[in-house]
Amino acid sequence: MARPGKRINDPEGMRKKVLDVAEDAFQARGYNASSIGDLMAAAGVSGGALHHHFPTKKALALAVIDERVAAAVEETWIAPVLAAASAREGVRAVFEAVATELEQQGFVRGCPLNNLAHELSLADPDFRIALAGIFDGWRRAISDKVRADQQVGRDEGTDPERFAALAVAAYSGAMSMAKAAQDASLLRDCLAGLERSALSPSQGGLAARRRNRILPRPRTL
Amino acid sequence: MARPGKRINDPEGMRKKVLDVAEDAFQARGYNASSIGDLMAAAGVSGGALHHHFPTKKALALAVIDERVAAAVEETWIAPVLAAASAREGVRAVFEAVATELEQQGFVRGCPLNNLAHELSLADPDFRIALAGIFDGWRRAISDKVRADQQVGRDEGTDPERFAALAVAAYSGAMSMAKAAQDASLLRDCLAGLERSALSPSQGGLAARRRNRILPRPRTL
DNA sequence: TTGACAAAACAGGACAACCGGTCTGTTTTA
DNA sequence: TAAAACAGACCGGTTGTCCTGTTTTGTCAA
After folding, report:
1. Which residue is nearest to nucleotide D20 (CA to C1')?
2. Contact call for residues B121 and A180 (beta carbons, < 8 A)
């Protein structure tokens, strides 16, 4: 296969491979429990190469946070919410999509952002700021969507910031419990708790809107 | 002070001192980031003594979880909820009490249970089961309180399990965000999000009560 | 095109610090 | 007087980082 005398430099590919492995390891085992030796072996990368692209473990983690965790939040939350008919519909759709996905895959690894946030927020200011920024963008996307809804006359009684904070918090906490219990149905319980109250646009309005589907869209990520 | 030739055996006191230090260290820095050497130094305990009371680091962590984390949840959540006039009142009171406490102390260290749960749930089955059990008792206390309310005719439209799951999730997630942002006001935002909706007993004032069966089976675990 | 040549990319070993656990021995206590 | 409680040294393994080389690649003059 690979000729011993030949070598092909592929900086970007190697960097991506390291980030792939690190993202997965940090998610599955956490930052401190993932040694760079493990990462080197898993990625098939030499110490010198790793050190060339990421001088320190902290630099690697920062890259994972900025490039991968942020992208994951963007992909599984922000984009679907923006694409939904309304903020409430978007939140509901994401909850159900994630629950369905977790039920299919059989185990719960938790939310990448929350996993790292709990372990690293207090460990280093740089980590904390990077993680807080992702939380911020997450909430902002939802609250902006609520404001957009309101400009069309919907949900005028809802405070955008508070609704966004509750949605993100409920999801984060639900994933935390689901991870500990290894039971994705807790996500559905939390969504149901929101449904009959916070997520019903006409505030407990029964007659209003009843046509929402059970499972909007598979949305495999 | 302490005579060099004299020694006083105090097994329980020494055990308590180690648990105090470990609880604090695990909360502030996490499990993996806290070395037993640090703990020994902080507690002023020799290696032999520590090993006598806690053979392994895992045993120490398990003791912290079973005796301290569970007690913390009991003290700050379960007892206040049980003592409150209703489940909703209890939840509101705890949110506000914690928010006020965090604002006074100026920084947010997060929820001890969630901090350890994120780091250890996937690391070891024993950890996971112990942590999941605490989450379970937490939710059960709230749902039991809701059922007690309902036996007096209140909140009959509320699903106890779903309400409890949402309350715990919202709190857990709010603390997660508050820790990352170092901003306790996020707790108040989430409470407000719950207030005007889920936490209002008369469900928006309209024709309350509506058994929504939006999601398939209730599925209590 | 070619041929230096410097910089980037990569390989792999070395290293000191640290980790958690064990071990032997001493002191206290029931 | 034996067991419990404690002290402190010790050890093999791991950690993250650094260091010295080697190979590849882009650049630019000839």
Report:
1. A48
2. yes
**Which architecture, in CATH terms, is A1-55?**
Orthogonal Bundle (1.10)
CATH code for the structural domain at A65-221: 1.10.357.10
Is A185–B219 a contact, with Cβ atoms under 8 angstroms apart? yes
Q: Is A143 on the interface with B (CB under 8 A)?
A: no
B65-83 pLDDT per residue, tens: 999 999 999 999 999 999 9
Chain A interface mutation, best of B161, B197, B206, B213, highest count of A Cβ atoms under 10 Å: B197
- The shares of helix, strand and coil residues in chain B, as percent rounded to the nearest 5, are 70, 0, 30
For B58-205, CATH gives 1.10.357.10
pLDDT > 90: what percent of chain B? 82
Q: Classify residue B3 by its DSSP letter.
A: -
Q: Where in chain B is the domain with CATH 1.10.10.60?
A: 11-55
- Within its chain, how far is the Cα of A212 from the centroid? 25
Task: Confirm whether any atom of chain D, the nucleic acid strand, is less than 7 Å from CB of A51.
Answer: yes
According to CATH, where is 1.10.357.10 located in chain A?
Answer: 65-221
Pick one of 1.10.760.10, 1.10.10.10, 3.90.550.60, 1.10.10.60 as the CATH number of B11-55: 1.10.10.60
Minimal Cα–Cα distance from A203 to chain B, Å? 6
Give residue-wise pLDDT tens across range A66-79. 999 999 999 999 99
- What's the confidence (pLDDT) of residue A214? 35
**Over 70: is that where the pLDDT of B134 sits?**
yes
Q: Residues A193-218: pLDDT tens digits? A: 998 764 334 343 222 333 333 333 33
Compute the nearest-CA separation of B216 from chain A (Å): 8
Please name the residue whose C-alpha is nearest to the C1' of nucleotide D10: B47
Alpha carbon distance A121, B181 (integer Å): 9
pLDDT at A6: 76
- Among candidate residues A175, A186, A220, the one with its CA nearest the CA of residue B114: A175
